[in-house]
Design goal:
Keywords: Amino-acid biosynthesis, Histidine biosynthesis, Hydrolase, Methionine biosynthesis, Multifunctional enzyme, NADP, One-carbon metabolism, Oxidoreductase, Purine biosynthesis
Protein name: Bifunctional protein FolD
Bound molecules: NADPH dihydro-nicotinamide-adenine-dinucleotide phosphate
Helix content: 40-55%
Catalytic activity: (6R)-5,10-methenyltetrahydrofolate + H2O = (6R)-10-formyltetrahydrofolate + H(+); (6R)-5,10-methylene-5,6,7,8-tetrahydrofolate + NADP(+) = (6R)-5,10-methenyltetrahydrofolate + NADPH
Strand order of the largest sheet: 1-11-8-7-5-6
Family: Belongs to the tetrahydrofolate dehydrogenase/cyclohydrolase family.
Distance between the termini: 33 Å
CATH class of the largest domain: Alpha Beta
Radius of gyration: 19 Å
Structural class: alpha/beta
CATH architecture of the largest domain: 3-Layer(aba) Sandwich
Organism: Salinigranum rubrum
Length: about 300
């Protein structure tokens, strides 16, 4: 029997687990605050931001919502970030990516106070992660670590193949998995679009993390029996449904499930964990900013 790893259930546990920390902060008169900045009229980005705000409200984090017209000069975005950096009620800042072309996304990430960088993308925080001294683990790979743990999968000593080398998923995932720490200690191969024979790598993996943004790229015949499959992909493909599309992952679920001992579904796998870990990082940021000890 293949274990279908239930991301909604694990995310719900993570959110419940934040309750004590939020109460401790509340006793000290502190409400964790997350500022979201949206500079796009892309419906998917709008949906992501509104889901994040709803998540905040559910657990007792105050969400501060900022929307800038996509034509706004970059300088106004930097001014807003400066204000949020200085705002004591704001413990975490999230600028929804992608930003418009006239804004340099790297400069945006650099302008956020690293202590409020709850996405974990500021170069200082990337450096700390690589050095094994993470302040904020990026939400998607951190969520995957929690999912694997909840499914009883310890990466230690295992061959893990990460398909994708983006700054937000593939690279930090690989970095976390090679850390000399719980949830790490794996032997990691990172594959990408220039990898010559992807299936040669995936076939010898004990765990495959697929984060390439190519619908159903990883199929059952590329996997060995008993593999654990984590599907990060969220791809809209045309389908004969009411909305005219359906969501599929980077893994072909049916064929992969036949080989896998455990697999995450899309939707309902990694996605809810990414959202939950953003809340986790915001509570951590609030506790550290206020110098209050909490258990996370
Ligand atoms: P990016 O497009 O930034 O990166 C994709 C990576 O996959 C690149 O490194 C690319 O290689 C590699 N790649 C592309 N094609 C292939 C191929 N044929 N074989 C091997 N590697 C390939 O994507 P993201 O990392 O941002 O996202 C990946 C997926 O995860 C997307 O579907 C995205 O929607 C989803 N996602 C889901 C989240 C969630 O919470 N569930 C959160 C974030 C992302 P190269 O570097 O050579 O171009």
């Amino acid at each position: 029997m293949t274990d279908i790893i239930d991301g909604n259930a694990v995310a719900s546990e993570v959110r419940d687990g934040l309750g004590d920390a939020i109460e401790t902060l509340d006793d000290a008169g502190v409400t964790p605050g997350l500022a979201t900045v949206l500079m796009s009229d892309d419906p998917a980005s709008e949906t992501y931001v509104s889901m994040k705000q709803r998540d905040c409200a559910e657990v007792g984090i105050e969400a501060f919502d900022y929307e800038l017209d996509p034509d706004t000069p970059a300088a106004e975005l930097y001014d807003l970030i400066d204000d949020l950096n200085a705002d004591e009620d704001v413990h975490g800042i999230l600028v929804q990516m992608p930003v418009p072309d006239h804004v340099d996304s790297r400069e945006v990430l650099r302008s956020i106070d690293p202590a409020k960088d709850v996405d974990g993308f500021h170069p200082e925080n990337v450096g700390r992660l690589v050095a094994g001294d993470a302040r904020f683990k990026p939400c998607t790979p951190h969520g995957i670590q929690k999912l694997l743990d909840a499914a009883g999968v310890d990466p230690e000593g295992k061959e893990v193949v990460v398909v994708g080398r983006s700054d937000i998923v593939g690279k930090p995932m690989a970095n976390l998995l090679i850390q000399k720490a719980p949830g790490g200690n794996a032997t990691v191969t990172v594959c990408h679009s220039r990898t010559e024979d992807l299936s040669e790598h995936t076939r010898r993996a004990d765990v495959v993390v697929a984060a390439c943004g190519v619908p159903e790229l990883v199929t059952g015949e590329m996997l060995s029996e008993g593999v654990v499959v984590v599907d990060v992909g969220v791809n809209r493909v045309d389908a004969d449904t009411e909305k005219g599309y359906e969501l599929v992952g980077d893994v072909e679920f049916e064929s992969a499930e036949e080989q896998a001992s455990a697999i995450t579904p899309v939707p309902g796998g990694v996605g809810p964990m990414t959202r939950a870990m953003l809340l986790w990082n915001t509570v951590k940021a609030a506790a550290e900013a206020e110098g209050i000890d909490v258990t996370l």
